[in-house]
Amino acid sequence: xxxxxxxxxxxxxxxxxxxxxxxxxxxxxxxxxxxxxxxxxxxxxxxxxxxxxxxxxxxxxxxxxxxxxxxxxxxxxxxxxxxxxxxxxxxxxxxxxxxxxxxxxxxxxxxxxxxxxxxxxxxxxxxxxxxxxxxxxxxxxxxxxxxxxxxxxxxxxxxxxxxxxxxxxxxxxxxxxxxxxxx
Length: 183
Ligand code: ATP
Ligand code: MG
Prior knowledge:
Layout: E1 2-9, E2 18-21, H1 37-47, E3 77-85, E4 100-108, E5 112-117, E6 120-122, H2 124-133, H3 148-154, H4 157-168, H5 171-182
The chain binds adenosine-5'-triphosphate and magnesium ion.
Residues 12-13, 31, 33-39, 63, 65-67 line the site of adenosine-5'-triphosphate.
């Protein structure tokens, strides 16, 4: 499974529909300060199920919705679509019925977030788990935020272990065990 396309609509500074093709190999994003490079990575993290507004550099999750500019009014919703190539059929059960997997997250002011996977309503937890198993999740160390390296160096052992577990692709298992223990 690998990413092939990211589509944004009303997400942060990307008020107009914006589509990004993600080719195999290394992808670089370049542009002047403030053009939206970090917003793109945040969109990727968000569609994979990020729940912490602080990681999105906002006070609340609705801060990801285009807030308006001098000439353009604010939007009422934001939507991010991530397309994955699943021809190797490595997506987990429930997401594995087609060669392409399309995950959509949409947020509406005062109504929160909703997810869809290949057109069907999906639960946040299942989307988070899908990417946790694929080791690319919202919490994944493959997305390195500014300041994260020093956070990691200063982290307590338990927090550092979580990063290693995510990198090893076992954090989905860890979460399932935790949920089983609560039952
Ligand atoms: P740098 O090179 O400085 O890291 P960058 O390319 O990473 O810059 P971003 O931080 O992604 O830039 O984009 C910042 C821009 O996004 C700012 O102009 C900010 O006003 C705008 N922005 C962030 N959230 C919203 C929002 N909800 N609505 C409209 N614009 C937003
Ligand atoms: Mg930036």
